[in-house]
From TrEMBL:
Domain MoaB/Mog as annotated: residue spans: 191-328
GO cellular component, one term: cytosol
Homology family: Belongs to the MoeA family.
Catalysed reaction equations from the record: adenylyl-molybdopterin + molybdate = Mo-molybdopterin + AMP + H(+)
Function of the molecule: Catalyzes the insertion of molybdate into adenylated molybdopterin with the concomitant release of AMP.
Lineage: Bacteria, Pseudomonadati, Pseudomonadota, Alphaproteobacteria, Rhodospirillales
EC class (word): transferase
Name the record gives this protein: Molybdopterin molybdenumtransferase
Record-listed E.C. numbers: 2.10.1.1
Length: 417
């Protein structure tokens, strides 16, 4: 069960900076504990629940790295070609069946086990053979073209650590060690809903004053990419009782609840009091643009994450605030996005004391250096800015102005997804 501490922050106090907020979350949110066993074909994107330890060496024996001829290095002449008899042939999946004898050569193929005692392999294109004998050129080094047992994976080593979100290459490695199933954490159960009397479901008629709900679909897509089991609770009207009851009911069967909209302090913003009626808020204002009204709390036993109502702010705050919370709930480790330092080719004035995220893309300057260009429109409702950008330009709290030529951090969207 997810647990958070009991103390809250005063809502009228100063806005919290991003890093202290994330540090707070790290101490207050723990992973769900339920696990299940799934076949390899269903393990992609799941979080490994226990360390995967190699039961044997990979490769399990010394083997040839090329098609050619296996020899004893000490049988070779130092400065002249060596003529030796070819006495056996070993292909991948076969075994010589006896120790090798000094003075013989074994025809060998890529992946085949090295005959016991032999330590070096000549590439076939470097040799001349009539089938019965082979002429081996001088100058080869001892041990060339031989893969050692355990060169890839050593028996008893941790090859995949608990908390890893499994990628195709991880699944391949597990298969190479003979694992048909893996123990993973159960999918995080997340309920999503939007609030607002102005919102309509795509496909419905759009009367004056109404807009289609894009936020919910963005969140469902982001959560699905993250590997969560998502429940779509639709659009809730701006009614305190309706929101309060929907939160309470969803909390009984989900690990996390995510809303968008209704987190400010206007007369029609009911999410904050609805959460407090069922649980508590730990914070609800961050020093961040876009997306100041971001909330974390608890509704009964479920973690609550309240995001802003503007579409760009929803995506930005999900990536930088909600995503780390959800990954921690999932038990996933080591997934902090890595910013790229790039050169700014734009000017931008910023309010000190808050973290700001601009949408932008990368180009190459005349000197080959990466340069960040800013999307020309900054509004938190300009959804096309996300579609037409490659990532986020992250500006730290202390910065007041960006000038062309300055170094800024660029976070590609692919780092999050």
């Amino acid at each position: 069960m997810v647990q958070l501490d009991n103390d809250c922050f005063a809502f009228g106090g100063p806005m919290m900076a991003v890093e202290p907020a994330l540090a707070l979350l790290a101490g207050r949110v723990g992973p769900v504990t339920a696990t299940e066993t799934v076949p390899l074909t269903a393990a992609l994107g799941r979080v490994l629940a226990a360390d995967l330890v190699a039961p044997f060496n990979v490769p399990p024996h010394d083997n040839a790295a090329v098609d050619g001829y296996a020899v004893f290095f000490d049988d070779l002449a130092a400065d002249t070609p060596t003529l030796l008899p070819v006495t056996a042939r070993v292909a991948a999946g076969q075994w010589l069946g006896r120790p090798a004898v000094r003075g013989e050569v074994v025809r060998i193929f890529t992946g085949a086990p090295m005959p016991t005692g032999m330590d070096t392999v000549f590439m076939q294109e470097d040799c001349r053979s009539d089938g019965a004998t082979v002429t081996l050129p001088a100058g080869i080094r001892r041990g060339v073209n031989r893969r050692l047992a355990g060169e890839d994976v050593r028996e008893g080593s941790v090859v995949l650590a608990a908390g890893r979100r499994l990628r195709p290459e991880d699944i391949a490695l597990a298969a190479s060690l003979g694992h048909a199933v893996l123990e993973v954490r159960c999918r995080l159960r997340v309920a999503v809903f939007s609030t607002g009397d102005e919102l309509r479901q795509p496909g419905q008629a759009l009367e004056p004053g109404a807009v289609y709900d894009a936020n919910r679909f963005a969140l469902i897509a982001l959560l699905t990419r993250l590997g969560c089991a998502v429940t779509d609770l639709g659009i809730l009207p701006d009614r305190f009782e309706t929101i309060r009851d929907a939160l309470a009911e969803a909390a009984g069967s989900h690990d996390a609840l995510i809303t968008s909209g209704g987190m400010s302090t206007g007369e029609e913003d009911h999410v904050k009091p609805a959460v407090e009626a069922n649980g508590r808020l730990d914070f609800w204002r961050l020093a961040i643009k876009p997306g100041r009204p971001v909330a974390l709390g608890r509704v009964r036993d479920a973690v609550f994450i309240g995001l802003p109502g503007n579409p760009v702010a929803v995506v930005v705050t999900f990536l930088r605030i909600a995503r780390p919370i959800l990954l921690r709930l999932m038990g996933a480790a080591g997934e902090t996005p890595r910013p790229i330092p790039v050169r700014a080719v734009f000017a931008h004035k910023k309010k000190p004391g808050r973290r700001e995220f601009l949408r932008g893309s990368l180009t190459r300057g005349t000197d080959g250096a990466l340069e960040a260009t800013k999307y020309p429109r900054d509004g938190a409702g300009v959804l096309s800015s996300l579609v037409e950008s490659e990532g986020l330009i992250e500006l730290p709290e202390e910065l007041a102005r960006v000038e062309p030529g300055m170094t800024v951090d660029f976070l590609p969207f692919k780092e999050f997804l």
